[in-house]
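Per reviewer request, we include the raw input and output of the structure prediction for the construct analysed in the revised manuscript.
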Amino acid sequence: MPKMKTKKAAAKRFKITATGKLKHGVAGKRHRLINHNSKYIRQNRGTSVGAKADEARVKKYLPYGL
């Protein structure tokens, strides 16, 4: 049986924490930031934990973790 391939797009966007949760960067922080207010920019700094509903799909893309 051949090895499963990792979806490289998912590998670049997600990390799996030690407890198995999904960590991801926050959307809307690349350009057009002048249109967002300071509170939006401040609150979306860093990374956040993904939704439980999306975990199964993303983990299928990353068969060997990260």
